[in-house]
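Task card 7
Instruction: Convert sequence to structure tokens.
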Amino acid sequence: MGNSASANIYIEIPKVEFTLGGTVSGKVHISAPQPIETCGVFLKLTGVEQTSWEEEKTKTVKTEENGEENREERKCVRCLYGAYDTFLNQEVPLWQHDGFMQAGQFEIPFSFQLPESLPSSFKLVGNKFGRRFDCSISYRLTAAFKRPGFFKSDISHHVDVLLHAPGPQYAAVRVSVQAEASANQDIYGCCCSCRSQGKFEIAVKSDKNTYHAGETASLQAQVKNLTAVDFPNTSGALTMTLKLRGKLLGENVNWSPGDMGYWSGQHKSTRGIYTDETFHHTESVSQFQGPGVFGGDLRIDDRAIPMSVNIPNYAAASTQGQLIKSEYHLMFTAVPDGCCTTNPTVALPVTVTLLPPPVSQWQQYSAAPTDWHPQTLDSIGFDVVAPSAP
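Output:
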């Protein structure tokens, strides 16, 4: 809660996790024990995207001796890359009046529509993929009681919210639907000839297409091995593809994840001026080993191959930002018996959302203060305007 001797302000929302394309509703509470001079009450939604990652690179440097260039040396340097972008900063007046607000308790209901095109909330901090990262997409809702004059501080209260995109074909009742993918591949041998050995057909279905971090994805693979080639093993996996954009911030910097606040202040990017360097990596974050499919075998219907793939609690979310792009696929692969050059594979795109915070961390935003008997002011509704691409 934003407090001062002259007034208090407080945001009440029923939860802190919302789906893009949906509606956010809540109330702003104001308590003024005495008349207070104000420019009005405002609500602001801010979205910030930032990247920071470290890479080791080898460079050639020229050494000097007695003021003269001596020889060239190759040395390893740690390069820090990153960028910062406030891509959303929309403020709307809830109650605007130049002068004094009378003493009393007030509440202002509000609701706004989220565009579907905003990037999902994202967080990746620490050592991953053999590198150090501090990357995030974060959203903050701020209510401010603005005061006129240079020496009068505004009174404000903010809530950090999680926004996530629905998966493909997300149902209107916000229950994700099943997802399917299939493959029909020719199998070629490598020992005796390069002729086709026949077809290997796979159809994979998951129980849904959107998962929270920490959930388990259940899959079923319908497999037809229409060849004489044995595939002794099958495997399932959840893979993450991460793409980052940034610029060189420094070399051999004494930096650790969590220091992004310093870099964001020193190296804030103008939108679009962060294409110097990119990071692109795909890695399996969870795996499952399944049974084999031998020559002529039909693993269909009640013989279909069931799989369960755990999605780690620490999994970063799927998102499509300007600096950060994160994509997930549930993979099913059949592994041949050494005499085949083809690994039949199906990639099923799915959406992963951040693990919601414990109720204890946000329930303080779900109820009005005690002894609360406010006057209700006019409700304010508005649409959040999606930022244009830089």
